[in-house]
Amino acid sequence: MSPTTTPQPEPGALRPLLPSDPSAIAGYRLLGRLGAGGMGVVYLGRTAAGELAAVKVTHADQADQPDFRARFRREVEAARRVSSPWAVPVTGADPDAPEPWMATAFVAGPSLGEAVAAHGPLPERSVRLLGWSVARALAAVHAAGLVHRDVKPGNVLLAVDGPRLIDFGIARATGETALTATDMVVGTPGFLAPEQAEARTDAIGPPADVFALGCLLAYAATGRPPFGTGAVDALMYRTVHDEPDLTGVPEGLLDLVRSCLAKDPAGRPTAAEIGVRLVEDSPGDDAEWLPAPVVRTIAERSARMLALPEIDVTEAGATTGAAAPEKSRRGFLLLASGAAVLAVGGGAAAVWAGLGGDKETDGKGGGKKPVPPRTSWTIGVLADLSGPGREIGRAQERGARLAVEQFNARKDKPFTLGLKVVDDRGDASRALATAKALTADPGVLAVLGPTGDAVAEAAMPAFEEAGLPLITVSAGYNLLTMRTGSAANATFLRAIPNHISAGTHLSFAATLLPEIRRPGVLEDRTEDHYSWQVTGGVRFGFGQAGIPPHFRVVPAHADAGAYRRVLGEMIDAGIDAYVHCGVTETAVHAARALTELGFTGPRFTGQAVFGQDFVKQAGAAAEGWYVCAPVADPATQKTAAAFTAAHRKRFGTAPAYYAGESYDVVTMTIEQLKAQAKADGKPARKGLWAALRKQKYTGVMGGYHFNEFGDLGMGGTFVFAVQNGAYKPIGSAPLLPKKPEKNDKKA
After folding, report:
1. What fold does the segment set 499-629+720-746 form as a domain?
2. Which residues are known to be catalytic?
3. Which of 68, 397, 460, 747 is exposed most, by the fewest CB atoms within 10 A?
4. What is the pLDDT of residues 495-530, one digit of tens each?
């Protein structure tokens, strides 16, 4: 999925309009919300003729970003150029509106991905007709001079009269590379061609869509992608180098699918040729082309569309199109221009609105009385307080609590703040449900957390849908901000380097030791997302320094014997330093093995190992290790003296690592909420992420500024040495490598 695109969500998830939502967009009456993400909202709309549409509306702050309107306009133009009964048509659009919007015909059926996940693989005839229809849609795409570039199960919707191809957000004219970085992988891993996986932009043409169609047919027939699942780098490698697993693909489709999946683009058939080879009959106008369970799903969803909710009018002046005449269930807010206002002391005018003017009973049979305006709001904390990351989570909760309490103690505060703390236990399987305790509370304006990557990734959809800013000081997974296959990030703010940047800083720190010429780098697959990203950063950093590392990979949770064997081979290969890209459990194995093998060179590792567990479990074997982490020691920061004293007074102890950074980002957030209250009369979620991203803030632990994706700017990694069972701060990791003298002389 592209940064400008939002998927057409399941109609079973239709939600009521919010008070801030428009009631109409141009000629579309809005019936409810289908979904929401960081870049906008998708509504279910209805024309005057009764036709349903998915209406995507982008946030105004997204539209103000450089190149956004160009990308959005290109998406609209690409979709309009495709003329096929098997592609969802555009029914209206205005890329130049203050909040750009686009409407497409609404399909009540599930996506292919939903159908296969719920009901299993499709029978051969269904796969054949699916391929015939999608191939015809792609032939129309290619005839229009475009390449779709993201053919995947989520972008094929199933209807009674055949499938529909959707999402032209990353489509390009053949040969076009504008607005796309030359080294950017575009598409969905597992459903992209080798030339896409290797970011060979000039080689990406119609054959890339044919390769993706082959993956799609194999998935529909077997229920699994032909190149497997797992870490992104593994998927990329298999796509480029391995043969697909086509076990279970019907014999009648096997040769065609194999030809679609040829590594060489020139060896693949065209989309038009595929349509000819698959022709048997067309889906027709009934649902017999699909298995009965899928037909029932379509029927149930279509029936729900016959019981659409009442159309609500929302706030006056909030509509983008013609105002709707019906009276809202929620009422509406009369604005100052020609509207009634309530006088509040000293002649000042103010508008009262609870939730769109709600009232409550007075308990004495006197009917309704106004709900007083809110004067207090809440900062949330989503942290691991009782699981494997509790050492960090508890420190973060204390830093946040101190920031909120200090704000509330001020006599000039414009409002009061509460603190709502939720323990996620480090459990990704329940993260989404846990997060909703915060996202469903309208008083929560921003959330600190989560502590770890897995919970952050699992919880993100809840925060994206709620438009609730989520600010982390410890989750470094890169796709939390650079969201593959979803809308552009406008929810997550990362106040630390991502793992790739952290790996680069780690290798730059290693280059400060002039004796390093042949470092050994071990990638531990226990926490796969973390390890491959850190390894990638280390690889890049040493490459910048002109130092060739010796790389090895070990499987997840390898035992002590495996580490002695692999590290022995690395030492025999002549390594003079060791870099561990993995977690505490395996770093302990590595530390003990290196000691037993008599290795005396410097040893380095990263964020996932930083903590007391490593020094306790490794014992004497941990001595001399260098550990890079995204936190500074408050004791070394002169600007943190008052914070440290306040922490001691409040909690009876010096601040632990991550407490200072948490205090900073919560204080930074409070300052932005104060600015909102001064400008708009009250703080709010809306616009907060953008305001935080654009500002530059200096806290007790250092400075914070963010790039367009919501990532911390350069720096933010600190080096510690393990000495006498404790972490001794060394200083900031360098932003540039120190090249060996021989390379300097060549330069």
Report:
1. Rossmann fold (3.40.50)
2. 150
3. 747
4. 999 999 999 999 999 999 988 999 999 999 898 889
